[in-house]
Write a structure and sequence with these properties.
The complex is a heterodimer. By secondary structure, chain A is mostly helical. Chain A is built from 7 helices and no strands. Chain A has helices spanning 9-40, 42-49, 54-79, 83-113, 121-124, 128-163, 173-198. In chain A, α1 (9-40) runs parallel beside α7, α2 (42-49) packs across α6 (128-163) and α4 runs antiparallel to α6. The N and C termini of chain A lie far apart (53 Å). Chain B is mainly alpha-helical. Chain B is globular, with a radius of gyration of 23 Å. Chain B has helices at residues 24-27, 32-60, 71-106, 115-137, 153-156, 161-188, 201-232, 246-280, 287-300, 316-344, 353-376, 378-384, 388-418, 424-450, 465-495; strands at residues 420-421, 497-498. The chains are: A mainly alpha, B mainly alpha.
Chain lengths: 201, 541
């Protein structure tokens, strides 16, 4: 590197990748707990896992994967100067995020209606492994849901910058970093989905 | 020596160039030197608060039974002492204050890679600190769990643990962002000619530390977040009545908090590695060995967390593996010590204050490190676990190591930042008084711990009275030394004599700028032609 660079794209992306690494480690703590408790209570995890609806989880997986595709195309669109297309795709991504959260709301509502939520009397009558499973389920999907909302807000912020041409065909690293964050949100779900919805069935 | 002369009277470099008036020129500045000084004075303030609390603890232990406070107050005071010293002083101490002040200049950059993010980190630090202080006076009273927040007690106590956990989460976020900033800065903003093997060892140490900050801190984030969830919505992941396991909390806690020990000590080692060559008038011996050992400590230090849990009920096999791994960390630490000694060997040693503090680092860190092996070895650990021996051990490493390195950095670099010098004689006297107090205080703790006095009690059996009183007297001597030290350096920095550039005769880049440095450090981007310890090439020797 020589001297002072005002816009260091490689540096900005490098920093973003480091940050994404810390996010992976944040969720890593929850995945460690999952693996330890799964090996301790295998049967009870399976019986609790049957309660989760694979269609809710599968639908949300589809929604998130599609949204990641939209983000990826939107970056290429901006680089080729198709500003309107880019904004439209980002809007579609945020709609996907909303669909995901609404879907999650109904999924959680069904569970809560059955009296299954952290600290509930019904949950405390269950087997120890089942209690751990549902507590972990709420914490992991809850933390992921918070990240979906944050990711959507970041994309909305990128849209504002694109609208005012502060982010444009020649200066698009903000959008690329926002997109990287969105892909991370997607990636974490790719691990949550099989661990909670598929392998225990 | 450099031919540069003192700056014209009134040229105060970056002090003169504020973007906003008054205090806003500081708290909204993205200049790494201004942010570094903000950190420095905040950290300095919290250190003084922490010392006061420590003195209160020692005063309570002057005699058996209740001396000046009851059990509950004592629990709150030692928790607060720990939280302030760990999260507000030692962890951010050298990286956030001196890293910000020095690292960009050392590698020939005008600022860090993300200046706005840097300012944001400071705001997070202040927010976290404010929440930690608020937790004392709100909710169910000050937290009484100790700084480790062990469950199940921390999940059940009615004191304000939730807010303190939030504060730790925010402080951790601040630490992550600083680490991320430094790693990117070192990768992207080195000046022309500043190859990886021309980086000063302080920069190497900060670089290694920054990786640990990035890789370990998220784990404490999720741990305290889970503790928060356990308290607020009753998720019970660590609660045996809900199938949880309290030991898992300890694992997650120490997966961060043991590497955090290296976040605390590695930058201190970097300070010492930079000071010793300058005051020995010799290039650093084993430059590559020192930098590789920094990386090795960062790596191996991440694999030893369970040595804090030998008595917690982990399997014998795990105890043996973690005990073995712990011994491995001693190797790179010893490599550093030997290289420092070899650097001094046959050098023309100058005993200026920075060198004195660097030397006490070596002495005290070695004692602390060796007593650490007593704890790392499972058989002896069972005997002294949770006694005052442990307290003595980590004060030797943390205060005797990192604390002394912090003082060394203060006396080494702050004159450059402020362009003024303190009184060296007073600094030397203060150092001597401090060392006497330090040794009396913490050696007494180790001995009384060997005799079996447990930690974290406000009371003890009468047999331990003599050594406890000796320790308390030591704490008073230490306090006198600290007051002298701080009064002298504050007087020097604000009202001392102006200095010429490069007063110590260093060959590294941060001393080649005028003092105080101008806002963007370098008028023209520097081109580096020699290493940081090549005194002959730099024309100093």
């Amino acid at each position: 590197m020589s001297g002072h660079v005002h816009k260091d794209y490689a540096g900005a992306k490098f920093g973003m990748w480091l940050f994404l690494f810390t996010e992976v480690l944040l969720f890593g703590g929850l995945f460690i707990l999952y693996s330890v408790y799964l090996s301790r209570y295998p049967e009870e995890f399976i019986s609790a896992g049957q309660e989760l609806n694979v269609w809710f989880g599968g639908g949300n997986t589809l929604v998130l994967l599609t949204s990641s595709l939209f983000v990826a195309i939107s970056i290429t669109a901006l680089r080729r100067g198709a500003k309107r297309l880019c904004l439209g795709l980002l809007g579609a991504t945020i709609v996907c995020a909303a669909i995901f959260m609404v879907n999650k709301y109904f999924e959680w509502s069904v569970k809560i209606d059955h009296g299954i939520y952290p600290g509930s009397a019904h949950l405390k009558e269950m087997q120890p492994g089942e209690m751990v499973f549902f507590n972990l389920y709420y914490l992991t999907t809850g933390l992921h849901g918070i990240h979906v909302v944050i990711g959507a807000l970041i994309l909305a912020w990128a849209m504002i910058l694109i609208k005012s041409d502060k982010v444009n065909a020649n200066d698009w690293v903000v959008l690329e970093n926002a997109g990287l964050y969105w892909h991370l949100v997607d990636l974490i779900w790719i691990f949550i989905f099989p661990l909670y919805y598929l392998i225990l069935h | 020596m450099s031919e540069m002369t003192a700056p014209a009277t009134g040229d105060r470099g970056f002090f003169d160039e504020a973007k906003y008036p008054g205090i806003f020129g500081w708290i909204f500045s993205t200049d790494h030197k201004r942010i570094g000084l903000l950190y420095f004075w905040c950290i300095f303030f919290f250190f003084c608060v922490g010392v006061l609390l420590g003195l209160l603890i020692r005063l309570e232990l002057f005699a058996p039974g209740e001396t000046i406070m009851g059990a509950q107050t004592y629990n709150a005071v030692f928790t607060l002492h720990g939280v302030i010293m760990i999260f507000l002083f030692i962890i951010p101490g050298i990286p956030a204050a001196f890293g910000n002040l020095i690292l960009p200049i050392q590698i020939g950059a005008r600022d860090v890679a993300f200046p706005k993010l840097n300012l944001f980190s400071w705001w997070l630090y202040i927010t976290g600190a404010a929440l930690a202080v608020t937790s004392l006076f709100t909710g169910g009273g000050p937290p009484d769990t100790g700084w480790t927040f062990y469950v199940p007690f921390s999940a059940q106590t009615s004191t304000n643990v939730s807010l303190a956990a939030t504060a730790v989460f925010i402080l951790g976020f601040s630490s992550i962002l600083t680490g991320l900033n430094f790693v990117t800065t070192v990768h992207r903003l080195r000046a022309e000619g500043m190859g990886w093997f021309r980086l000063p060892l302080f920069t190497w140490a900060l670089y290694s530390t920054a990786w640990v900050q990035i890789l370990a801190t998220p784990v404490i984030g999720i741990t305290v977040a889970l503790l928060f969830a356990e308290r607020v919505i009753g998720t019970g992941l660590f609660d045996p009545t809900q199938g949880g396991d309290p030991i898992m909390f300890q694992h997650l806690f120490w997966i961060y908090s043991h590497p955090a020990v290296y976040i605390m000590v590695l930058p201190g080692m970097g300070v010492v590695s930079d000071i010793i060559p300058v005051f020995s008038r010799k290039p650093a011996f084993g430059y590559k060995a020192i930098l590789i050992s920094s990386l090795a400590i960062a790596f191996a230090g991440s694999l030893v967390w369970a040595h804090h849990m030998f008595t917690s009920g982990i399997s014998d096999l795990a105890v043996m593996i973690f005990s073995f791994l712990t011994f491995i960390v001693a190797i790179p630490s010893a490599i550093k010590v030997f290289n420092w000694l070899a650097t001094m060997y046959q050098g023309s040693i100058l005993l200026d204050p920075p060198m004195l503090f660097a030397l006490s680092f070596i002495l005290l860190f070695t004692i602390g490190g060796l007593t650490g092996l007593v704890l790392g070895s499972a058989a002896t650990d069972v005997h002294v676990h949770d006694t005052y021996f442990v307290v003595g051990h980590f004060h030797f490493v943390m205060f005797g190591g990192t604390g002394m390195a912090f003082f060394a950095a203060m006396h080494y670099w702050l004159p450059m930042i402020y362009g003024r010098m303190y009184d060296k004689t007073v600094a030397t006297v203060a150092w001597g008084v401090m060392m006497i107090g330090f040794l009396i205080l913490y050696i007494s703790m180790k001995v009384v711990g060997m005799q079996g006095m447990p930690r974290r009690y406000y009371d003890y059996v009468p047999e331990f009275t003599g050594l406890n009183q000796l320790a308390t007297v030591g704490s008073w001597i230490l306090a006198v030394g600290l007051i002298l030290l701080f009064a002298n350096i504050i007087r020097g920095l604000f009202w001392g004599d102006p200095i010429a550039a490069n007063p110590w005769g260093s060959a590294s880049l941060e001393w080649q700028v005028s003092s105080p440095p101008p806002t963007e450090n370098f008028g023209k981007d520097p081109v580096v032609t020699h290493g940081p310890y090549d005194y002959k090439e730099a024309g100093i020797l």
